[in-house]
Design a protein that fits this description.
Helix content: 25-40%
Strand content: 15-25%
CATH architecture: 2-Layer Sandwich
Structural class: alpha+beta
Distance between the termini: 40 Å
Bound molecules: guanosine-5'-monophosphate, zinc ion
CATH superfamily: HIT-like
Radius of gyration: 13 Å
Number of strands: 5
CATH class: Alpha Beta
Order of helices and strands: HEEEHHEE
Number of helices: 3
Length: 117
């Protein structure tokens, strides 16, 4: 089947290779690259290759793909840090989502505080 893609989506463009990114890991259905504005020693975005807007839409449309995203996050944390990680999905602008192609933030490589709001 054809990939789900949106012409004006930043992460669809990175997935397609049309914009550069510091890619640290890939799988058949997902890609992981460093955030341009890192908030931790390891701050990697894990992105399904198919376009879905947010985590709830992804989970409803393709739960296996959400599981692939989580598996790639775990792989990145194992390669880039000690295997321990926080995985954040901002959902909606008031929660801090600014790119509307679902992505998990893998935050790792330090003792993490807990001040989510
Ligand atoms: P959100 O705010 O949607 O949860 O996360 C979007 C993230 O994408 C932000 O942390 C931001 O720094 C990152 N970002 C925005 N544009 C780019 C880009 O062109 N390349 C990379 N690697 N990260 C980006
Ligand atoms: Zn997209």
């Amino acid at each position: 089947t054809a990939p789900r893609t949106e012409p004006d989506c930043l992460f669809c463009r990175i997935v397609a290779g049309g914009l550069p990114a510091d890619v640290v890991a890939t799988s058949e259905r997902a890609i992981a690259f460093r955030d341009i504005n890192p908030q931790a020693p390891v701050h990697v975005l894990v992105v399904p290759r198919d376009h879905h807007g947010d985590i709830a839409q992804l989970a409803a449309a393709d739960p296996a793909l959400l599981a692939d995203v989580v598996a790639l996050a775990d792989e990145v944390a194992g390669e880039q840090a000690d295997g321990q990680f926080r995985l954040i999905f901002n959902s909606g602008p008031r929660a801090g989502q600014s790119v509307f192609h679902v992505h998990g933030h893998v935050i790792a490589g330090a003792e993490l505080g807990w001040t989510p709001a």
